[in-house]
Amino acid sequence: MSIAVEPSSDELRSFTSWKLDVLNAASADTRLKSGPFRVLYRVVKYMNAVTREAIVSDETLSDDLGVTRSALHDARKQLAELGWWRYRPGRYGRGTIYTILDDNVNGIENRLLDEREIRRDRRNVVRRPHSDGARNVASAPHCEPINVVDKLHCEQDDSVVERRHCDIPQCGPETTSSVVAAPPIHLDTPARRKDGSAIGRSAYTRAHARPSPSGPIVIPAGDDMALLMRLGGGSWVRGSDRLEKTGDASFRRERVKAYGLTAGEVAAIEGRGAA
Q1: What secondary structure does DSSP assign to 236-249, as a single string?
Q2: Which of 5, 93, 190, 263 is the 20 to 30 A CA-CA neighbour of 87?
């Protein structure tokens, strides 16, 4: 006849601390799902403080957890494969004997500590206040949108149209000035020279000039492709100092349809009629 040994208070405290370490590590095991963890938690509650083993029948665990025998067997097998316990099925109606293992505890605790340090380092990163960023923007060189002037000659009526842009590298090779933010030109609106006189309706000025009663004509800076598209796709190309017409009519019609020009506008642009 065996005599039950009562653990001392120190042994009980050590056992309780050990159980908490095991459960804490198991809860942080990314391989372990919630169902098997509930089974492990319930078995740990039945552990003996001296032998550190638990003897529990499947009927008791099924009733406590509200799961089927099949689910209980699957969870028990998974916990054994992941190294959280060893178990021996009981014989003659006795309960299953579970031996809890703590082989995974140190590795998981070290991982949690490393992750905590990483999060702390991220929180302690010194961030530059917004006022510093505003100060840097204020001290940057200002864009002068009209310090470079390109003069484009229009062969049809011998007029000269200016295109203005910025030459500061930070602003890009050709930055459109805010001066050109005007409503789109209509074909029946006359363009103006610097002196205020009307410019003839060449294809270039009809499509791109912006009327400015109190200042010079300003042409938007940027890729010449935008100019070609507005004139009907590939129907116009830029020469050394003028625009030349090229391409076939079908290609022009496709571009005109894509960019919303009417047939009358196309005819006016190509000099074949009025809008």
Answers
A1: EEE-SSSEEE-S-H
A2: 5
Phi, psi of 200 (to 5 degrees): -60, 155
Instruction: Give the CA count within 13 Å in the CB-facing half-sphere of 66.
Output: 0
Q: How far is CA 58 from its chain centroid?
A: 50
Angle between helix 34-45 and helix 69-81 axes, rounded to 10 deg? 90
- Burial class from Cβ neighbours inside 10 Å (0-12, 13-18, 19+) for residue 266 reads buried
Q: Which of 76, 79, 38, 80 is nearest to 57 (CA)?
A: 76
Residue keyed to tokens 């000269």: 160
Structure tokens at 61: 């665990």
Enumerate long-range contacts of 170-176, CB under 8 Å, 24 or more apart: 170/140, 170/141, 170/143, 171/143, 174/221, 174/222, 175/143, 175/145, 175/221, 176/145, 176/220, 176/221, 176/222
Tens digits of residue pLDDT in 17-72: 999 999 999 999 999 999 999 999 999 999 998 888 999 999 999 999 999 999 99
Domains of the chain: 9-118 (1.10.10.10), 148-269 (no CATH)
Query: Is this prediction's pTM over 0.90?
Result: no
Q: In angstroms, what CA-CA distances link 243 with 56, 156, 220? A: 94, 9, 16
Give the strand pairing for 236-238 and 243-245.
antiparallel
